[in-house]
Amino acid sequence: MLPALTLLKPATLLTLIHPCLSPVGPPGNDPWGGMQRKQPARRLQVRLQVPLSMRLSCNLSIEKIALFKDTEVERKARLDDIIILEKTKVEDAREHQRMMLELERERLEMERKRLELKEQERRKEQEKKAKEEDERILAINLDECQPYERIYYEAMQEEIIERVKARHQGSTQ
């Protein structure tokens, strides 16, 4: 790297070290050209008298800025990665919620069907018991009953016969 620096003009070298070390002169005027060619060594001597600590601190500042830029780029890349991960997490959570919602709907549908079947079985059982009770009442011999029992069972038998007739007429229409 040293040969590359030796090819540079002293003014450029000083400007690279720190911008405040560049040779002074009117804008657009080459400090090493024209009338001033006779004085380059003296001017360079004056500029090189800047304390070494200041030149080193300038180099450190430039390195810090470069490091900060690098860390800024790395930080942005990490933040982009974090954002992508968070988006993925959110999307996964949404998908999980959709799946859970669908499973819950299916579970509720199955529960509804189970309750319907249970209700149908309960109705069938009630109909079966009512039919057995009706058959038992119709099978009672009214001649062997007490007078009040006879009146009660005759009324019951008539109700049963009317229900059966109504059911039979409803199914034929």
Structure description:
- The protein is mostly helical and 173 residues long.
- 78% of the residues lie in helices and 0% in strands.
- Among the domains are: 71-134; 140-173, no CATH class.
- The protein has helices spanning 2-6, 10-17, 40-48, 52-138, 147-172.
- The model is unreliable at 1-6 and 21-27 (pLDDT under 50).
* Structural Rg: 53 Å
The residue fraction in helices comes out at over 70%
Mean of pLDDT: 77
Order of helices and strands: HHHHH
Structural category: mainly alpha
For the record, give the distance between the C-alpha atoms at the N and C termini, rounded to a whole number.
Answer: 110 Å
Biggest sheet character: none
Which of globular, elongated, flat, extended, rod-shaped describes the shape? rod-shaped
User: How large a portion of the residues is in β-strands, by DSSP E?
Assistant: under 5%
Count of helical regions: 5
Q: Report the count of strand segments.
A: 0
Give the uncertain stretches in residue-range form: 1-6, 21-27
